[in-house]
Design a protein that fits this description.
By secondary structure, the protein is an all-alpha fold. The chain starts with 36 loop residues before the first helix and ends with a helix. It has helices at residues 37-64, 68-73, 77-120. Helix 1 (37-64) runs antiparallel to helix 3. It is 64% helix and 0% strand. The protein folds into two domains: 1-34; 37-120. The structure holds zinc ion (ZN).
Amino acid sequence: MKSSTQPASQICSICHASILPSYYFCPNCGNKVNTPPLSTSITTQIGIYAFSIILPMIGFILVTKWPGVQYFKSKDEKTKKIGIIAWSLLILSTLITIWLAYIWTLDTIQSVSQSINTDMGF
Ligand SMILES: [Zn+2]
């Protein structure tokens, strides 16, 4: 659906100068006339992908270099208890991180698709 408020030829809403459709800013007054939807979504996508690639790697590095593993493997009961507590905290913080990443990703996808819809006049 094409919105009736969207002009067929671009005219700056501030100074009414004619603007090429490829322009993002009015050359006359600097008013923002077009938001670049593709670059925004690609940046956001790269952010999401990078995040989902880097996050498990950070987790892996942390676990392999983590002293909690040695504590957990210890035969001494007090030391092992520290390891168990450390493990519980690690699992808990991992779950919270995954949950926050999930909410953040959903929120970002929603706002990106919303901005694309607005730009295309749907
Ligand atoms: Zn202008």
